[in-house]
Amino acid sequence: MKNVPVPRWIPELAVASKIEYKPIMKETTRQFINTPLAIGNREIPTRLILAPMSGLTHVAFRELVDRYGGCGLLATEMCSAKALPVENRHVSNVFKWRDAELPRLCCQIFGSDPETMVPAARRVEAEGFFGVDLNFGCSVAPICKKNCGAALLKTPDLAVSIVREIRRAVSIPVTVKFRTGWEDRIGPAVDLARRFEDAGADALTFHPRVAPDRRSRPPKREYIHHIKQAVSIPVFGNGEVFTMDDCEKMLEITGCDGISLGRIAVAKPWVFAHWSGKLEPDLNTHRESLLQMMDLLSDHFAPPTDIRKFKKLALYPAALFQFGHAFFNRMFRAADFVEIAHEINMFFNASPEPLARPNLNLFR
Ligand SMILES: Cc1cc2nc3c(=O)[nH]c(=O)nc-3n(C[C@H](O)[C@H](O)[C@H](O)COP(=O)(O)O)c2cc1C
């Protein structure tokens, strides 16, 4: 693992770092996670990948994940296919990357038809990304109203034609992220998974929830098993994998080829390195990663975007601790990064108690 640079915001008081976690991951699980996986004509080194998250998996956050040893595959935030062909990477807040991460970075696009999505996929290929990921899972109203994201699951023929046309247009891996659909039956999703594979998809990420649910009910992991059984391309399971135990259960119950980690990665950008056995975190890891996040946001975004992005993200690491909500509120009210750094240092100097299972269902 690379050396993690010392953050600019030096802690005010040194605290004894307390060992927070006991390694409990089975050796067989660890070995599995660390086994490379072929996706189309490429390969990823490990099987824990970053889930695309709008407002969160920006260039600064991805650099932080990389500082802690990276992950199997990075993901951008979802990018509008309509805008993408003319997007300027030096102006856009979402279609923005470091050249060094490109070979390990999937660009996620959303759109409503092949006519807009094919040119976007071509641009993704031309820029040198690892692959293009198609968003057929987002269920927020502004996206679904435009017939994008999970709305496409209502018109399977159209969704399949998008995959087919993009497959014809590019030679990089084409992956699809989708969910159960609009009714709680796995049959249509299994059928769609087969059709995505036939249309040329190289891997699937499946989130076993119906669209109106968003994250209000637990995901049905057994559904991932059905998807995995139906296709021969790699399947990544996704949904509420927050602990090592969740990770083991996800692999055992579903037989999936890898796991796409969302909110827990925002809470612990080192989670990939931790679970794959490359890093043993302590309380200072939490403090340090928040301070580093501020540094990286200042490097990549101008004020006030940098501080806004920090406040959006800080909810998740704060939710790992008792009284984390009060901690988050203090950071949220702070005027600038100097005040936020002060709050972070005060909080961690008091040796906060980590929660056994974080409540990350904060945004619906
Ligand atoms: C704030 C937020 C933004 C998200 N944005 C996207 C997105 O842009 N594209 C996408 O496919 N999924 C998006 N998701 C869904 C995640 O990729 C993931 O499927 C979901 O959070 C469940 O995984 P988790 O339980 O590991 O967080 C988003 C989730 C959150 C919490």
Question: How would you describe this structure in keywords?
Answer:
364 residues, alpha/beta, TIM Barrel, 2 domains, nine-stranded parallel β-sheet, two-stranded antiparallel ribbon, binds flavin mononucleotide
How would you describe what is shown here?
This protein has helices at 27-33, 59-67, 114-127, 141-144, 156-169, 186-199, 221-230, 244-254, 263-267, 271-275, 283-300, 305-313, 315-318, 324-333, 337-349; strands spanning 37-39, 42-44, 48-50, 74-75, 79-80, 105-110, 131-136, 174-181, 203-210, 235-238, 258-261. It has 364 residues and is of the alpha/beta class. The strands form 2 sheets. Strands 3, 4, 5, 6, 7, 8, 9, 10 and 11 form a 9-stranded parallel beta sheet that branches. It has a two-stranded antiparallel sheet with strand order 1-2. Helix 11 packs antiparallel against helix 15 (337-349) and helix 14 packs antiparallel against helix 15 (337-349). The two termini are 35 Å apart. Bound molecules: flavin mononucleotide (FMN). The site of flavin mononucleotide (FMN) has 23 residues, from helix 9.
Number of domains: 2
The percentage helix is 40-55%
Name the CATH architecture of the largest domain. Answer: Alpha-Beta Barrel
Quote the beta fraction.
5-15%
CATH superfamily of the largest domain: Aldolase class I
Q: What structural category arises from helix and sheet content?
A: alpha/beta
Total number of strands: 11
N-to-C order of helices and strands? HEEEHEEEHEHHEHEHEHEHHHHHHH
CATH topology of the largest domain: TIM Barrel
Overall outline = globular
Low-confidence runs of at least 5 consecutive residues: 10-19
